Amino acid sequence: MTQAKNGDTVMVHYTGTLDDGTQFDSSVGGEPLEVTLGEGGVIPGFEQALEGMAVGDKKTVNIPVEEAYGEAHSELVQEIPRDQIPAEIELEIGVQLQAEGPQGPFVVTVTDLAEETVTLDGNHPLAGKALNFDLELAEIKS
Known about the structure:
Blueprint: E1 9-18, E2 23-26, E3 33-36, H1 44-50, E4 58-63, E5 77-81, E6 96-101, E7 104-113, E8 117-121, E9 131-140
Antiparallel strand pairs: 1-2, 1-3, 1-9, 4-9, 5-8, 6-7, 7-8
């Protein structure tokens, strides 16, 4: 049976959960995710878990923080004056905004609102978390 290896493009169904059981993403009921192994298009631990799987194989993996989105960095959390955000933008906790930085655009998440300030977090929402994935390899394309 052919096993997925570096350079192969595979189709995989997945369900991602946190250690507390909270589901954060899933392809079940939709189209499988297409991944080319070795290109770095997904987090390292997810890609590594797919290597060696054959079509129809299922497995559950726990991906530690360092093989997922890495540690959260406190320097990416900033409190800014509310008046620095355009008035037409409705602010609420959890809303993601696009900001402009020295290296181009990036996404921040509103994590706290005060009367005069807004706290923005530039970390990936899953940074600092171990991730669990239920995987099912649907197809090996090449």
